[in-house]
Amino acid sequence: MKSYLIAGASALLLVATAITAPAQVKPTDPQIAHIAYSAGVIDIETAKLALSKSTNDQVKEFAQSMVDDHQAVNEQALALVEKLGVTPEDNATSQALVTAADAKRAELGKLDGSAFDTAYVANEVAYHKQVNEALEALLIPSAQDAELKALLETGLKLFQGHQQHAEHVAAELK
Amino acid sequence: MNAPHLNRRHLLISGGAALIIRETPARAHNGAVHVTIEDLVFLPAEIEVRTGETIEWVNKDRMAHTATVKGGWEVMIPAGKTATRVAEAGDSVDYYCRFHPNMKGRITIVA
After folding, report:
1. Residue A22: is its pLDDT beyond 70?
2. Which pTM was predicted?
3. Chain B contact present for A158, CB below 8 A
4. With an 8 Å Cβ cutoff, is A79 touching chain B?
5. Which residue from A7, A60, B3, B100 has the fewest beta carbons nearer than 10 Å?
6. Where does the record place the DUF4142 domain (chain A) (predicted)?
7. How close does chain A come to B70, measured CA to CA in Å?
8. Rounded to an integer, what distance in angstroms lies between the CA atom of residue A163 and that of residue A155?
């Protein structure tokens, strides 16, 4: 349990570092598109893990809405970058996000039952909070294209909603 | 000499129509009150309805939403679809979307 907590904390720290470290260097639009898209893919993958493991109806419903919502936004994002002729560009922030998420998923994969549900939902609260902070502090202010900025702003509203939804589910699990 | 008279009458009619529109902003011809959902916002956020009238949520987003009253009823509003509820006497309520609780609305029952 203790090692799990430590691993959880360090994974979180890694995500925090991944998002805040490049603050000195403003990401470009192709990089922002890649970061936002990757953040969505990560949450879809984690939700699929939850759908395969959890037996709690609230947790499963939450996970399904993560899959549906993030897929919808990522489809919009792909349509936009195609329209703008922008090719999303892989970058250190995207890579750090993916690395941290892979570690988190491996960790969650070892848990079962209510231990899994609690850890998954707690991670969803923390993850959306981190992504929201990155959107507000870095990605939205750095975006140059008006349509990309607008989509990120919609994304922020959506992710803030997800964070609150996760907080509600977390409260129900207690 | 008839022309000014007609004009005045038109003016009165159009004035009356404008007044009706202003008094009932969210009301459609069929008596249903529409709430549009776009970009994670209920529009208008606050509506006034009479008991027995239909509230219709039109979801223009690509994601599912709900109209949920804490400890009360819930209406599921799938992506790109509409959903309805017939207003009841006790429906002066605050509601929110359970999937995105930052989306909030209010219904007031009027006589």
Report:
1. no
2. 0.81
3. yes
4. no
5. B3
6. 28-168
7. 12
8. 12
